[in-house]
């Protein structure tokens, strides 16, 4: 009886095992029949070994290439064949007379001189509609010197989202085209324009062996944007005999409008000059895209260029340029930009705001707060008045026969410690232009003045007028264009008294 039970149990286990095996086989069959066939997969990287060479040719033998696309397409023609010394030259008729990107023209010729499909999708495809090839999105035609042609028809995007289905000439097969070949098919003729608004400056070595790293800028003038009035800077003439000014922070430019002052070097956390961008930005400027060629007056008005938001005028290496900044626009990638026009060629560009520092200038960040910086050894006398008290500094020059000698200062006929005098002189120079004054020049009461008399002749006068509210007009040689704190005058008087008492003046106020 026991043996019969054991036998029955073995039979049952055997039957269960067979059933499980049948279920596994059935599951495997379902998996095999429901998995996509290889030709429906479209990952380019997964089928690198399945590349199909379709066209092999020399790029130099292509004399013309046309692209038809939803934007209208373009037609590239070879205008000069390649030689041993020169590459072939290509052009687009619509761009004749304009600066074009020659490398882009050559690149698309190279792309279609040799074409390999990522893989074969379907042989002798009976229905090309499902691939979008009955009405292709793009048609690329290459023409060769020997009269032959190739036509590439490009349809729907592959299911992976990159690349597209393609057919070639009379070949009935459907292939996949990779992203590289697709990269320029959405272009229009304008896409081949050179995006350099101005020829980029290139350093060179002059005849004396000196490296010239920047062009000469004869002037820069900005009207509009966030700037009120006309802003203009010009190079400082360091050779001018009548000039007793030194640059405040090392700038080589001076503001001549709307105020007269040294152009400020605004040092940032990295030790660079934030204000240098206004002149270095004239060395090169690249647009995001080209919007239109040969605009009419109506076109200029449409893009806000008839009454521009900002006008930038400058001279570089003796050549005049004018840039107009028009309406705001958002580029395709979300970049904030403006329509832009250059006098160099009749083109409307789109330029990123990040490349247009001139449209957001702030005059308070552009002028040097130090207004008058005569060299200490050049001054032979300073006449000073503070709250109706007058003082006179007389400074003897160094002994010409003693190279170790120094200037000798006197205050109202009494000798003054040289180091203390140097500190006092620093205080004179520190009269800060803290704001621009555009009020009545006759306003206020004169409360202090000092005049530098120079050894080689000439003088400069600084005057301070009390305006009330702890503010003074700061006038340089009768130019009432600045304001400063009245505390400067208060400490000016205190420092003079310290000096007369044999004490060192303070630079704090």
Topology:
Elements lengths: L1 H33 L17 E4 L6 E7 L5 E7 L8 E3 L10 H12 L1 E3 L1 E4 L15 E7 L4 E9 L6 E5 L5 E4 L1 H4 L13 E3 L5 E2 L5 E2 L4 E8 L2 E9 L17 E5 L3 E2 L14 H4 L4 E2 L2 E5 L3 H6 L7 E7 L2 E12 L5 E7 L2 E8 L26 E8 L2 E8 L11 E4 L2 E2 L2 H12 L5 E2 L8 E10 L4 E10 L2 E6 L2 E7 L1 H14 L9
Antiparallel strand pairs: 1-5, 2-3, 2-7, 3-4, 6-10, 7-8, 8-9, 9-10, 11-18, 12-13, 14-15, 14-20, 15-16, 16-17, 19-23, 20-21, 21-22, 22-23, 24-25, 24-29, 25-26, 26-27, 28-32, 29-30, 30-31, 31-32
Helix pairs in contact: 6-7
Give short descriptive properties of this protein:
single chain; 509 residues; alpha+beta; 3 domains; nine-stranded antiparallel beta sheet; 32 strands; disordered N terminus
Commentary on this structure:
The chain is α+β, with helices and mostly antiparallel strands and 509 residues long. The chain has 3 domains: 48-192, no CATH class; 204-365, no CATH class; 376-500, no CATH class. Helix content is 17%, strand content 36%. The protein is built from 7 helices and 32 strands. A 9-stranded antiparallel β-sheet has the order 17-16-15-14-20-21-22-23-19, with no helix packed on it. A 9-stranded antiparallel β-sheet has the order 27-26-25-24-29-30-31-32-28, covered by helices on one side. β9 and β10 form a beta hairpin. The model is unreliable at 1-16, 27-49 and 241-249 (pLDDT under 50).
- Beta-strand content estimate: 35-45%
Provide the gyration radius in Å: 39 Å
* End-to-end Cα distance: 118 Å
Low-confidence parts lasting 5 or more residues at pLDDT below 50? 1-16, 27-49, 241-249
| Classification by helices and strands | alpha+beta
Number of strands: 32
In spatial order, strands of the major sheet run: 17-16-15-14-20-21-22-23-19
Overall pLDDT confidence: 88
Helical coverage, percent range: 10-25%
Task: Tell me, briefly, the overall form.
Answer: elongated
Q: How would you sum up the major sheet?
A: 9 strands, antiparallel
User: So how many helices?
Assistant: 7
């Amino acid at each position: 009886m026991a043996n019969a039970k054991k036998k029955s149990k073995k039979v049952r286990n055997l039957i269960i095992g067979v059933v499980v095996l049948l279920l596994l086989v059935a599951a495997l069959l379902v998996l095999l029949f429901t998995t996509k066939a290889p030709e429906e997969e479209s990952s380019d990287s997964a089928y690198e070994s399945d590349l199909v060479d379709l066209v092999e040719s020399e790029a130099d033998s292509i004399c013309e290439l046309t692209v038809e696309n939803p934007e209208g397409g373009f037609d590239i023609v070879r205008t000069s064949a390649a030689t041993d010394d020169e590459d072939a030259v290509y052009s687009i008729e619509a761009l004749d007379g304009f600066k074009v990107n020659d490398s882009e023209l050559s690149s698309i010729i190279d792309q279609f001189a040799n074409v390999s499909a990522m893989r074969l999708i379907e042989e002798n495809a009976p229905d090309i509609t499902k691939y979008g090839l009955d009405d292709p999105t793009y048609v690329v035609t290459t023409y060769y010197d020997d009269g032959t042609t190739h036509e590439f028809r490009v349809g729907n995007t592959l299911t992976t989202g990159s690349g597209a289905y393609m057919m070639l000439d009379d070949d009935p097969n459907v292939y996949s085209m990779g992203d590289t070949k697709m990269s320029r098919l959405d272009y229009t003729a304008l896409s081949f324009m050179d995006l350099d608004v101005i020829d980029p400056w290139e350093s060179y070595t002059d005849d004396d062996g000196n490296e010239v790293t920047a062009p000469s800028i004869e002037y820069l003038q900005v009207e509009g944007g966030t700037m009120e009035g006309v802003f203009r800077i010009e190079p400082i003439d360091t050779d001018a005999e009548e000039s007793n000014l030194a640059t405040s922070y090392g700038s080589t430019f001076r503001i001549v409008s709307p105020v007269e002052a040294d152009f400020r070097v605004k040092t940032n956390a990295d030790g660079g000059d934030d204000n240098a961008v206004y002149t270095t930005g004239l060395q090169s400027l690249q647009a995001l895209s080209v919007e239109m060629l040969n605009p009419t007056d109506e076109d200029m008005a449409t893009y806000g260029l008839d009454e521009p938001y900002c006008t930038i005028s400058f001279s570089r290496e003796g050549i005049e340029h004018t840039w107009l900044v028009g309406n705001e626009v958002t580029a395709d990638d979300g970049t904030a930009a403006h329509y832009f026009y250059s006098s160099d060629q009749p083109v409307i560009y789109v330029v990123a705001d990040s490349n247009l520092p001139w449209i957001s200038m702030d005059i308070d960040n552009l002028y040097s707060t130090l207004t008058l910086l005569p060299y200490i050894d050049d001054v032979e006398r300073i006449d000073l008045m503070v709250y109706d008290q007058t003082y006179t500094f007389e400074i003897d020059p160094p002994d010409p026969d003693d190279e170790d000698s120094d200037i000798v200062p006197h205050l109202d006929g009494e000798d003054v410690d040289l180091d203390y005098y140097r500190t006092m002189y620093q205080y004179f120079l520190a009269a800060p232009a803290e704001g621009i004054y555009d009020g009545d020049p006759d306003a206020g009461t004169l409360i202090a003045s000092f005049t530098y008399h120079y050894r080689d002749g000439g003088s400069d006068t600084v005057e301070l007028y009390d305006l009330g509210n702890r503010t003074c007009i700061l006038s340089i040689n009768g130019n009432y264009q600045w304001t400063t704190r009245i505390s400067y005058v208060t400490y000016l008087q205190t420092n003079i008294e310290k000096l007369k008492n044999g004490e060192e003046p303070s630079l704090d106020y």
